[in-house]
Specification:
- The chain has a two-stranded antiparallel sheet with strand order 1-2.
- It has one domain.
- It is α+β, with helices and mostly antiparallel strands and 103 residues long.
- Helix content is 45%, strand content 12%.
- The chain is built from 3 helices and 2 strands; from the N terminus they run H-E-H-E-H.
Length: 103
């Protein structure tokens, strides 16, 4: 597990993702149906979450803020999707099973 965490730290660092965490999947089992880790992968034991900030200017650009938000979201989501798929590959290279959950 330490090797996976080290590889995740390197992956996120290379992709300018400053925050991530790993938790027990069981901690979210009281969530509504379709939001529980076991709804996505019945054998889920851990969850990995990560995030990055959006520049404040995107939200303060006046009349164009909606356009700016969707433009930024397009760029960010594309990056997040690629990083998430790589994270799943890292986990599966260690013999585990992973599923990317976008949202």
């Amino acid at each position: 597990m330490t090797k996976i965490i080290e590889e995740m730290t390197n992956l996120f660092s290379r992709n300018n993702i400053p925050a991530f965490g790993i938790g027990k999947a069981a901690s979210l089992e009281n969530e509504p149906s379709d939001y529980r880790p076991s709804d996505m992968l019945s054998s889920a034991q851990s969850i990995l979450c990560f995030g990055l900030s959006v520049p404040k200017g995107v939200f303060k650009s006046g009349e164009r803020s909606e356009w700016m938000y969707w433009r930024a979201a397009n760029v960010y989501y594309r990056n997040i999707d690629a990083v998430l798929m790589r994270a799943c590959s890292i986990i599966e290279e260690e013999g585990e099973i992973a599923v990317p959950v976008f949202g």
